[in-house]
Amino acid sequence: MSDLASVHAGLLRETYPGERRVALTPEDMARLSARVAVSFEPGCGAAAGHADEAYMAAGGTPASLESIAAACGIVVSVRRPRASAIFPNAAILIFLGTGATSRECSRPDATPLELDLARLEGLQDAGCMDAATAQATISGHAAILEGARQLGVGHPMLMIDGSFVRPIRMAAFGADAASLQAIATARRLGALTHAFTFTDDERLKVERLGARSIASYPCPAPTVRGPSLTERAARRGQLAQMQLIVTSVGGLIRPAPLLLDEKTIATLAPGTVVIDLAASRGGNCSLTRPEEIVAANGVRIVGSTNFASCEPREASRLFSDSIRTALERLIGDDRRLRLDRRDPVIDRLLGRQATGARIAS
Fold first, then answer.
1. Integer Cα distance of 250 and 121 in angstroms
2. What is the pLDDT of residue 103?
3. I need a surface site. Which of 46, 64, 182, 354 has the fewest CB within 10 A?
């Protein structure tokens, strides 16, 4: 366990195209003020509805990126900082990446220590520090709204003078946080919801939400190679009846298995929309291209990797909750940083990185 100096943290403005979230809200900054001083990049929370004045009222100090890199021992952001090379080797970077981005180095202080919150995905002890699951919930909700926009049709059955709008048929793959939220949102909007599941536990989860489990295989979640040719063939007829398909199989720290190949896409009805929430991990669809909408045989495959930013205020609130909880776990009431590997959550965050003597100034 390391008992180090009092902590000065920096909050970055996101630079990834289309990223509107902020890692820490003014409310959580105020709650942390008793144990950590925070400098922030001006404009960091503007896209999420948080003005610089709110951060200053919460005790934050505006500062440039260069000043934050020079003065702050801990740096927080939504995504891994693109300019990570400017931070000193003794710094600690906290962000939500892919798990694989965190470098594992045997020599202490060779590079900044990266605490990638993706490492906590699905860890029960992590609680609200599991930012990946919280953000996936937002993504599932936003994906359905984007799917409705792409379809250009209404969800609910609606009678108007003898005519009606038919409900869409929607299918989700798996039962992770994004898939479950997508099912719940689509159902609230009046869609007929279906789910392809891979375990009995997943089947029960989707059925509790009112979705029909149309294919459940008594085997673990698919491997990187995905389902067999026989399984894919069995699904094609079922998928051909759907108008909106949401795929989200494979966690942040695992490659996405191939679920929809080109032959499957060719059998879908023209006008079908596929939302591939696994686009950042290679995609569950063979035609997925990150940050693009690909058209093939009248089918549109949406490969956005930034759905959580479609709802930046709520997504930022949840992300900030994860960051605040992480900092409260890392920094004691005595304002000193502790990297205690006896804590299973901190140990998971650290991975095999050597901590060395990290000085949080």
1. 11
2. 47
3. 64
